Amino acid sequence: MSENKANPADISSNLEDYLEAIYEVVKENGVVLPRDVRQRLGVGKSSVSGALKTLASRGLIEHTPYGAITLTSEGQKTAEDIARRHEVLRDFFIKVLDADSEVANTAACEIEHVMPDSVLERLVEFLCFAQLPQGDEQSLQEQFRVYYRESKAPLKEVAGLTLREIDPGLTVRVVSLASEGAVRQRLLDLGIMPGSEVSVERRAPLGDPIEVQVRGANLMLRKREAAMILVEHLREP
Length: 237
Hints:
This protein is α+β, with helices and mostly antiparallel strands and 237 residues long. It folds into two domains: 1-126, Arc Repressor Mutant, subunit A (Orthogonal Bundle); 163-233, SH3 type barrels (Roll). It is 47% helix and 15% strand. The chain is built from nine helices and seven strands; from the N terminus they run H-H-H-E-E-H-H-H-H-E-H-E-E-E-H-E. A hairpin with a 2-residue loop joins strand 5 (210-214) and strand 6 (217-221). The longest helix has 24 residues, at 73-96.
């Protein structure tokens, strides 16, 4: 009789959670019993029993009633793939997006089941890239943390006409930038500086982001970034 084969794409997200829980308990304790799975996932005895039967029928675990649960070679491989997706996503949310660890872990649990391998590999490479020093010796993730923190700071009052108020189809000239730190540097890097002419191309349905054109390049700005750019209408020739 040939052993059933399975992979993450062949089993439900619910069964993936059970398989991952078994894998984690084995790593921690060396052995796993049904009650360990119940405690880990916070589910009832009947739910665990049904899931274990299904996993066993798929050739992913070996289990006898009330006995220890062991992963088959296929189950081990599948569980490792699931755990790897979870770890990569959690690390991305924490290390790059600077998210709270508990929130990051919950988000990883929800997304890991639908993450294609091709996207996962790109995410792994980006995570490695983000931690490398960039031109200013800061890593990309460090730059993002500063930028995000400053972008969420209370928006100060700006006296005068700002780019946020300009309708699509109009071109204006930048007078000054009211932003500071990483947000100001991002605008300068984009070529938005005093004297630059900026054309507002379009706005997203909810008004954010705003697409503008500067020196022939199309850029996307957040509304709060546009609110920090003081502008003036171009005089008629």
